[in-house]
Amino acid sequence: MTRTVLCFGDSNTHGTMPMETLTSSRRHAPEDRWPRAAEAALGAGWQVIEEGLPGRTAQFPDPVMGDHMDGRMGLRIALASHRPVDVLAIMLGTNDTKAMFGADARRVAAGLAGLLAMANDVMVQEAHGGFRVLLICPPPVLEQGPIARQFAGARETSLALPPLLRDLAATWGAGFLDAGSVIEVSPVDGVHFDAEAQRSLGRAVAGAIEAL
């Protein structure tokens, strides 16, 4: 029997390469994206679905990129269109730290709490035959590179996230992985991961999934 993992996230789940300019949109090769690396590490009997949208937040419509960046909308659609899944891996929160949202770490965590509530809804779980959730805290932001203005103040906020999300995962009975304990963001833009970091994260995610 094949087990399915739905990886729900933002540009780092999409595989966006570190941005050298504001208009960069290059994407890592499939084998260099963490969801595919996790699939390879998990081995036979597992399939991974990539649901990464650049710009996605856990809770905020984006006034520039659009209302569809609100992860609450996206998660409802993803869970309905990809059912049944056995594991839902969520890695969001980086874009919630953007200066324009004015969110502190607790507000960012509150957005992820909403996604966990949605995933654990009785009707949603029943539609899938039950699934486990892995909450992944993204690594801290570096305020540098071409998108530094968008993330002004984000480092302090992102540094405060791991203990909040760890407690949140425990409250909801979810698995937890602090990606910042495994990898660092690229110094090129302070947000995205290089290929080596993507692969390392994928292997760590596979281990966290097996631990579920």
Automatic annotation (TrEMBL):
Name the InterPro entries on file.
Answer: SGNH_hydro, SGNH_hydro_sf
Any one GO molecular-function label of the UniProt entry: hydrolase activity, acting on ester bonds
Question: What Pfam families does the record point to?
Answer: Lipase_GDSL_2 (PF13472)
Q: Where is the SGNH hydrolase-type esterase domain?
A: 7-197
Q: Which Gene3D superfamilies match?
A: SGNH hydrolase
Q: What is this protein called?
A: Lysophospholipase L1-like esterase
- Organism listed in the record: Pseudoroseicyclus aestuarii
